[in-house]
Design a protein that fits this description.
The chain is α/β, with parallel strands linked by helices. It contains 11 helices and 19 strands. The chain is 24% helix and 21% strand. Strands 3-2-1-4-14-17-18-19 form an 8-stranded mixed β-sheet, covered by helices on one side. The radius of gyration is 20 Å and the shape is globular. One of its GO terms (biological process) is purine nucleobase catabolic process.
């Protein structure tokens, strides 16, 4: 049993910063009060926000730990203010049955700074061997890293119809990708042409027709596609699809699936995010080795981002471009809610995950200070605001931007979420 704690400071509570006392027992908020006399508290300096939630990371563990592992990936997460991550199943041996799930569960146990959940891969044939501890399902509608496309019949899949947990779709139509695969790819513009926005549109049309209870369309690259299907599915966006475009000189470090789009499309997608049109803001953190990024033509797709996702957005909040409420909804409370996890809010009954920020700490991102195994970032030089202190379930993990605790992260399953 964790000891009772009382934290004091300026918490973001129901839409405003307020001087509060937050009571915590066993890592959970038990009470929030405005006035207390003669109470010994742990004072948190700065503006205190709920810990952030990233529903889409690829930590490559097990199988490709030369690229990333749960230790380095989760460390990067907490430095960026993220206290909970959900890890995707496209490991080099995909997590598509309970044996592989249990193996991954055992490998990562005790090696995470954040709380975490694990997805299973669904390909249309393996519903009877999916682990019941899976936080959700991932379906690749078209081929991408370490994955093959779904081979079933979407509209008549009884397993998908009955599945009650969230299903996350990599929304690129396999048939459309095949039609465009012969295109030569030497630039980011070529990569866009080889996986055009129309492939996303076709996939979203399919998703919109499914009877699955919780459908999440991952990493939407073109809001013009998504707006055709109002409220047919939940929509996820990434920082790279609202801040980067194919005209930037990023080389293979800008190669990602779905691709970066033209500047006008990026700007429209960004405006939609700023206007609150998206449900989730996720990093789609997908690290590779330097040798995998030597050329656009042969380079692998994926961008690191779990450590920069929140700091990039906090800088936009500081500049009054993005509302804090929109950031907290998409980056903390809404994704947690969709997965049935009591995180992302500073309220009674929620996990005591806190991030304290001094908005005047805005700086230029120095990729050499990141904590992933490969730190080269397409956001190098962008404005960022990193949190000063980070708490996971009431335990301080980051103090004044230095890590002070080892791996405290717990696995989250549907049974205990």
């Amino acid at each position: 049993m964790m000891e009772d704690k009382i934290f004091s400071g300026k918490f973001y509570y129901f839409g405003t910063f307020q001087d509060l006392f937050v009571y915590v027992k066993n890592g959970v908020i038990t009470d929030v009060r405005k006035f207390e006399k003669s109470v010994k508290t742990e004072r948190i300096e700065g503006a205190i926000l709920p810990g952030f939630f990233d529903a889409h990371v690829h930590f490559r563990d097990p199988g490709e730990t030369d690229k990333e592992d749960f230790y380095t990936g989760s460390m990067s997460s907490v430095f960026g203010g993220t206290t909970t991550v959900l890890d995707m199943p496209n490991n080099i041996i995909p997590i598509r049955d309970y044996n592989q799930f249990d193996r991954k569960k055992a490998v990562v146990k005790g090696r995470s700074f954040t709380d975490y959940g694990l997805f299973s891969l669904y390909d249309g044939t393996n519903g009877d061997v999916i682990s019941k501890e899976s936080i959700g399902l991932k379906i690749f509608m078209g081929e991408s890293t370490n994955s093959t496309a779904f081979t079933g019949d979407y509209e008549h899949d009884q397993f998908l119809e009955k599945y009650s947990r969230p299903v996350v779709f990599h929304g690129e139509s396999a048939e459309c990708l095949r039609k465009n695969s012969a295109r030569e790819v030497k630039t980011l513009i070529d990569h866009d042409s080889s996986r055009p926005s129309s492939c996303e549109m076709e996939a979203l049309r399919t998703i919109s027709k499914l009877k699955t209870s919780v459908k999440i369309a991952a990493h939407i690259s073109d809001y013009g596609n998504a707006q055709s299907f109002p409220e047919k599915f939940f929509m996820e966006v990434t920082p790279h699809h609202i801040l980067l475009n194919e005209e930037m000189q990023l080389g293979a470090y800008g190669k990602v699936n779905p691709p970066l789009r033209e500047k006008a499309v990026m700007e429209k997608t960004r405006e939609a995010y700023l206007d609150g049109k998206f449900d989730l803001l996720s990093s789609d953190h997908a690290p590779h080795l330097e040798k995998d990024k030597e050329s656009i033509q042969f380079g692998k797709s994926g961008i690191i981002g779990v450590e920069t996702r929140v700091p990039l957005m906090l800088a936009l909040v500081h500049k009054k471009i993005l509302s804090l409420d929109t950031l907290l909804k998409t980056g903390a409370s809404r994704p947690a809610e969709l997965f049935g996890i009591k995180k992302g809010k500073i309220e009674k009954g929620y996990s005591a995950d806190f991030v304290s920020v001094n908005f005047s700490d805005m700086e230029k991102l120095n990729e050499n200070r990141l904590h992933s195994k490969l730190t080269i970032s397409p956001f190098n030089g962008f404005d960022v605001v990193f949190p000063r202190n980070v708490f996971v379930r009431g335990e301080k993990v980051i103090s004044n931007r230095e890590i002070i605790e080892d791996c405290l992260g717990n696995m989250i399953t549907p049974q205990v979420a």
